[in-house]
Write a structure and sequence with these properties.
This protein is mostly helical and 351 residues long. 82% of the residues lie in helices and 2% in strands. The chain folds into two domains: 300 residues, Rhopdopsin 7-helix transmembrane proteins (Up-down Bundle), CATH 1.20.1070; 39 residues.
């Protein structure tokens, strides 16, 4: 029945998205190399180099883990898109799909957590002291993982690998074979949920928090307290954060709504379907690239990391300098004691 539905979907309008296979294999290969290197470096900094950690670094560590989980599945996807055949079994196909949605919506939610945390730190620095703790950050991260996995795992495990036999080859398909029946019965509801909880709400929170932070920075007392240089850093941080969020996630999520409308036959017409199917692979590649751009957020957001590294080197220098002073003062003290002792014995002998 699934193959019948898939055949009917294909036969209704001719597809013109064959370019997606070389596009996916090329982009996913680049994302795998760049994403793996940058995120491994980031996890090393967070776990080994960084000594001072706060709630912001807690969110960023979870964001790194989300990226790495997805990056490790990319070689399987590259192999599939090059060979257009999935030999790894149905379970691994479902896990790969689940991790894609886990990464995308987990990234959006963790970036939103960073944005809200920055909003609380700048706009309400005193009232938010009890909220902005590492314990509360860990609770929030746990809630994000539960929410994301509860949506991504059922979606991924609804997908079934399908086989097609013809005169030339026997191919097994993955990642691209949800039927119209599945879209109408389940996936349209899933899209509404993930678009609302995973995209619209985080987008609004990111935009609103950024606007309120910028309004706070424009106040004279904030400028005089924080200084022009600090204001420039925060402004640059907010702009980079918003650009990455909007660039990576808006094209895919907007197109996903139209893609769902096409697949459920709510939007009809071969021209509309052709446009949506052509945009979808490009938007998907942009969304996947978030694994490469997230480390940029770490750099600009984590003033703590940069200050920690500077502070660490300063402390090391101060320790060595103080040790030198201590040894010098100790030797001087010993020398003074010896002189004092000699004088005392000399006086005693003279008496």
């Amino acid at each position: 029945q699934l193959l019948t539905d898939l055949y009917l979907d294909i036969s209704t309008c001719s597809k013109n998205d064959g370019f997606k296979y070389p596009l996916y294999s090329t982009v996913f290969s680049i994302v795998f190399v760049v994403g793996l290197i940058t995120n491994v470096v980031a996890i090393y900094i967070f776990t080994c180099t960084l000594k001072l950690r706060n709630e912001t670094t807690t969110y960023m560590i979870n964001l790194v883990l989300s990226d790495l989980l997805f990056v490790f599945t990319l070689p399987l996807r590259v192999f599939y898109f090059i060979n257009q055949n999935w030999p790894f079994g149905s379970t691994l196909c479902k896990v790969s799909v689940s991790l894609f949605y886990t990464n995308m919506y987990g990234s959006m939610l963790f970036l939103t957590c960073i944005s809200v945390d920055r909003f609380l730190a700048i706009v309400h620095p005193f009232r938010s002291r009890t909220l902005r703790t590492k314990r509360n950050a860990k609770i929030v991260c746990t809630a994000v993982w539960v929410l994301v996995l509860s949506g991504s795992l059922p979606t991924g495990f609804m997908l079934q690998t399908t086989s097609q036999d013809n005169n030339t080859r026997n191919a097994t398909f993955c990642f691209e074979n949800f039927s119209s029946k599945q879209w109408k019965a389940h996936l349209s509801k899933v899209v509404i949920f993930i678009e609302t909880v995973g995209f619209v709400i985080p987008l609004l929170l990111n935009v609103c928090c950024s606007i309120m932070v910028l309004q706070t920075l424009r106040r004279p007392q904030t400028i005089s307290r924080g200084g022009k240089l600090n204001k420039t850093k925060i402004l640059r941080m907010i702009i980079v954060h918003l650009i990455i969020f909007c660039f990576c996630f808006i094209p895919y999520n907007v197109n996903l709504v139209f893609y769902a409308l096409v697949r459920t036959k709510t939007l009809k017409g071969c021209y509309v379907e052709s446009v949506v199917r052509s945009i979808y692979p490009v938007a998907l590649c942009i969304a996947v690239s978030n694994c490469c751009f997230d480390p940029i957020v770490y750099y600009f957001t984590s003033e703590t990391i940069q200050n920690s590294i500077k502070r660490k080197s300063t402390v090391t220098y101060d320790v060595k300098f103080s040790e030198a002073l201590q040894s010098e003062s100790s030797s001087n003290l010993q020398c003074s004691l010896r002189n004092l002792k000699a004088k005392v014995f000399h006086n005693e002998s003279s008496v």
